[in-house]
Write a structure and sequence with these properties.
Blueprint: E1 4-9, E2 19-25, H1 33-42, H2 45-53, E3 62-66, E4 75-82, H3 88-104, E5 109-113, H4 121-134, E6 154-159, H5 165-189, H6 197-210, E7 214-218, H7 220-226, H8 229-235, E8 243-249, E9 258-269, H9 289-304, E10 309-319, E11 331-333, E12 339-341, H10 349-361, E13 367-372, H11 376-382, E14 387-391, H12 394-407, E15 411-413, E16 431-432, H13 440-449, E17 457-461, E18 467-468, E19 478-479, H14 484-496
Parallel strand pairs: 1-6, 2-4, 2-5, 5-6, 9-10, 9-13, 12-16, 13-17, 14-15
Antiparallel strand pairs: 3-4, 7-8, 8-10, 11-12, 14-17, 18-19
């Protein structure tokens, strides 16, 4: 159920809501500002709670106050904002935390007070995104008593200045963007018996139809005919045939700029003949996080309507270990002609991506960006909340860093260490697809680079943050959609350059 959003300009303590969320800058006291207003409205209980919890507005501090019907809101959640100047990403985070708190409080209505010092459509859009992202739940497969008894159905953004049409438009756009990110979350969380390659492709088609995007789906026969033998090989062991999806957004006015996003869509990765250990294998339903991000991004692009042409390419396959499965020692020819020796069938994602990248290159884009839950090595290097990214252009890496910072998503620039390229040399083919264990995320990126030619390219390894084992920031437990907001910001940067 879509949450109903509205925006008003009024006294923050006069809004009728089950929960009101208010950001408090560091250094606040009950003698001035919002804490003083609350003290006057609720009495000495505020000062006692502030003293007891040592609440001073430090970043990420929270204070939950029950109002006992002294004001219209039943509860007030104060969230510390710290000392730094607030960016739109901070507003999104505040709204997301507030919405998640409201879910836990079994609230039906929520008010988010836009912090002092933030104004304009950017902050409004970010707050709307945050409400949607923070209120996300996935309960498509729960029944009976497992279903939530109460839904957060209404949220009000409280502005400190007069509300204009631009603010209402920004709120509506923010809601659409938040809902787009949630498409990725839903897809990642869907079990693999329900979401196999054909169904992932169908989900992309549904998104394209709903957003007036062009879409083409290639089946196994079409992939084979094109010469995408690496891609097809990965799917050989599965009863489910592979699919490749090509989604296209074309702006209203002709443009010379073209960006292609590529996503790895392994709807389940058993490891193939090099089978994974059983503990944790259930999480491999999320090995299509990159594809989910691309589908979600295309929905967001349709809402934002940038002045650049955007393509989304997703490779959908299932990696299983039956008698037809590809083997270590096999050699296959890729779409761009290079032959590849298979070393480890559990390194399947880069094979699918290699052919998808070669296909993307044929579109003659200004930029190719791929994202994938590609390597455990990246998680070892950066942890579970940070994506690593690589680029064959320093200026592109700088642009991506700025986009991620603006979006508020954690990423880190990783090096393409040329010395490690030696590990991809094969005695029997043009390339091996894996090298030594050490620097595994880097050698995976180096392998992918072989298939982009001279096209400007960014590779994002989202293996850590694509799924979360607990809620944090703007992300829920399970599928996160980490990266979509950064990609959208990057498009905006490139469109305006």
């Amino acid at each position: 159920m879509s949450i109903k959003l509205s925006i008003v300009s009024t006294d923050p303590l006069s809004v009728d809501a089950d929960v009101a969320v208010i950001g408090v800058p560091e250094g606040a006291s009950t003698k001035e500002g919002i804490l003083a207003d609350l003290e006057r409205a609720l009495g000495p209980v505020v000062a006692k709670a502030v003293k007891r919890e040592d609440f001073t507005g430090k970043k990420d501090q929270t204070l939950d106050l029950h109002t006992n019907d002294a004001i219209k809101a039943s509860r007030v959640l104060l969230i510390g904002l710290g000392k730094a100047t607030l960016a739109d990403a901070d507003v999104r985070l505040l709204a997301s935390k507030g919405a998640r708190f409201a879910l836990g409080a079994k609230a039906e209505s929520l008010a988010i007070v836009l912090p002092e010092g933030t104004s304009g459509s950017g902050a409004v859009r970010a707050a709307a995104e945050g409400v949607v992202l923070g209120s996300y739940r996935f309960n498509a497969f729960q029944t009976g008593d497992r279903l939530p008894k109460v839904q957060l159905s209404r949220a009000t953004l409280v502005a400190r200045s007069k509300v204009a049409k631009a603010d209402r438009d920004a709120m509506a756009l923010g809601q659409k963007i938040g809902e787009s990110v949630c498409i990725a979350r839903d897809l990642i969380n869907t079990p693999p018996n329900e979401l196999y390659p054909e169904m992932l492709a169908r989900a992309a088609q549904d998104v394209a139809k709903a957003n007036n995007l062009k879409v083409t789906v290639f089946d196994k026969a079409a992939l084979t005919k094109r010469g995408m033998h690496l891609f097809v090989a990965v799917a050989q062991g599965s009863a489910r045939d592979p699919r490749m999806v090509h989604m296209t957004y074309t702006p209203a006015k002709p443009t010379k700029k073209k960006i292609v996003f590529v996503g790895k869509g392994l709807t389940f990765d058993s490891g193939g003949l090099c089978i994974k250990p059983a503990p944790g294998m259930e999480e491999m339903k999320g090995d299509m996080g990159g594809a989910a991000n691309v589908i979600a991004l295309m929905a967001a692009v349709a809402a934002v309507k940038p002045s650049v042409e955007v393509h989304g390419i997703i490779g959908c396959a299932e990696n299983m270990p039956d008698g037809a499965a590809y083997r270590p020692g096999d050699i296959f020819k890729s779409l761009d002609g290079k032959t590849v020796e298979i070393i480890n069938t559990d390194a399947e994602g880069r094979l699918v991506l290699a052919d998808c990248l070669a296909y993307a290159r044929s579109l003659k884009p200004d930029l190719i960006l791929d994202n994938a839950t590609l390597t455990g090595a990246c998680v070892v290097a950066l942890g579970t909340t940070v994506s690593g990214y690589y680029s064959n252009r320093d200026e592109l890496a700088d642009a991506f860093r700025r986009a991620a910072k603006t979006a508020g998503e954690a990423t880190w620039h990783m090096p393409l260490v040329e010395e490690l390229r030696e590990g991809l040399k094969s005695d029997w083919a043009d390339l091996k697809h894996t090298a030594d264990r050490w620097g595994g995320s880097i050698t995976a990126a180096l392998f992918l680079r072989e298939f982009v030619g001279d096209v400007p390219w960014i590779h994002v390894d989202i293996a850590g943050p694509s799924m979360a084992n607990k809620a944090y920031g703007i992300y829920p437990k399970g599928g996160t959609g980490h990266g979509v907001l950064t990609f959208l910001q990057l498009i905006d940067q490139l469109a305006s350059s």
